[in-house]
Amino acid sequence: MNPTLHTAKSTLKLTRRLRRLRSSAAMRAMVRETRLTPDMFVLPLFVCEGEGVRREVSSMPGVFNLSVDEAVREATAAMGDGIRAVLLFGLPDEKDDIGSSAFDPEGPVQSAVRALKAAAPEMLVITDVCLCEYTDHGHCGIVIDDEIANDQTVEQLVRTAVSHAAAGADIVAPSDMMDGRVGAIRHALDERSFENVAVMSYAAKYCSAFYGPFREAAASAPKFGDRRSHQMDPANALEALREVEQDIEEGADIVMVKPALPYLDVIMRVKERFQYPTAAYQVSGEYAMLKAAARNGWIDEQRAMLESLTAIHRAGADIIITYYAREAARALR
Predict the structure, then answer these.
(1) What is the pLDDT of residues 19-59, one digit of tens each?
(2) Considering its fold, how many domains does the chain have in total?
(3) With pLDDT > 70 as the criterion, what percentage of the chain qualifies?
């Protein structure tokens, strides 16, 4: 190599050198446009029946099915990492064709809400409102003549949301994608003096291939058919805007896009159009892919985790639901 290349004075006449602001870690931090903070993360927890249960999900390393006592332990430990919100999914022992255990006041979610509020009253407790974990056929609603019956399902969802509010939930999160469920839940909550319980709607929930590990964790895979009749077609973005608009009109306080990384364009459109509190769910498949690649030594897991979460926030998500919540919070210290 010619040594004069290292000593000759540059002949370039550049007024703006963008690399100046990348010259050191301190410089890069000072001009950083998108900043992650632990309080924007929500930690999902799978709550099962029993006591002392901590059963790892094979396709989601580091994620467990937890009995109520273990869920409380996990949530309080997460608070120590800076996490201020959890999202609860229930795993009942008994299921039937209409998901009646979803609104059992002694069910796993309702019991966990009460226990969490007693142990850590400052923790925000969000509850998933759907029937898929509670039906013996694994579908998100009541099946009549081989179809998901929208209005009958909404009635069950309302009962479930009210039972969660009665247990002390701060936010109920309908994830079923039935038409009209946000309005029905909002009306029922207000009618029963739960007007301060917020609704976080899974407003644009796509029929995604990235849900597989979740269905193992929640034992909620459909026994027949699929969910294309109610979850959104992955090809559609304008439809997502109509879904979000309708849920806002019906009283949603927060809207959500799910999954997150494959739908960054949808997150951005939703945020730009509505300027509304926007959540995104980094789903089980997104998490499992990073974990698998890291275990094979193909990626730096912490860098890939933070880069993915930054992309989700940069696209417009104010709230990120992620199984990486605790790890990300610790990495940001």
Answers:
(1) 999 999 999 999 999 999 999 999 999 999 999 999 999 99
(2) 1
(3) 93
How far, in Å, CA of 80 to CA of 205, rounded? 31
Dihedral (Cα; 246, 249, 252, 254), 10-degree rounding? 80
Instruction: State the pTM of this model.
Output: 0.94
Question: What one-character DSSP code corresponds to residue 84?
Answer: -
How far apart, in whole angstroms, are the C-alpha atoms of residue 308 and residue 302? 10
- The span from the CA of 315 to the CA of 323, in Å, is 19
Is residue 258 part of the annotated active site? The answer reads yes
| Structure tokens, 143 | 């099946």
Q: Which of 13, 95, 117, 205 is catalytic?
A: 205
pLDDT, position 7:
58
Q: What is the DSSP letter of 232?
A: B
Rounded CA-CA distance 21/110 in Å is 51
Selected catalytic residue, list 13, 117, 223, 258: 258
CATH number at residue 39: 3.20.20.70
C-beta separation of 75 from 45 below 8 A:
yes
Q: Which residue range forms the structural domain that includes residue 274? A: 35-331
Residue 65 maps to a domain: yes
Axis-axis angle for helices 181-191, 238-250 (nearest 10): 20
Closest-CA residue to 67 (of 41, 93, 86): 93
pLDDT at position 5, please? Answer: 57
CA–CA separation, 122 and 318 (whole Å): 20
Per residue in 238-279, pLDDT (tens digit) is 999 999 999 999 999 999 999 999 999 999 999 999 999 999
Per-residue pLDDT band at 128 (split at 50, 70, 90): very high
In this model, does residue 144 exceed pLDDT 90?
no
In this structure, what token pair is assigned to residue 104?
């059992």
Residue 199 lies in a domain: yes
Partners of 129 in beta bridges: 174
Q: How many angstroms separate the Cα of 247 from the Cα of each of 159, 242, 255? A: 19, 9, 8
Torsion over CA of 259, 264, 301 and 294, rounded to 10 degrees? 60
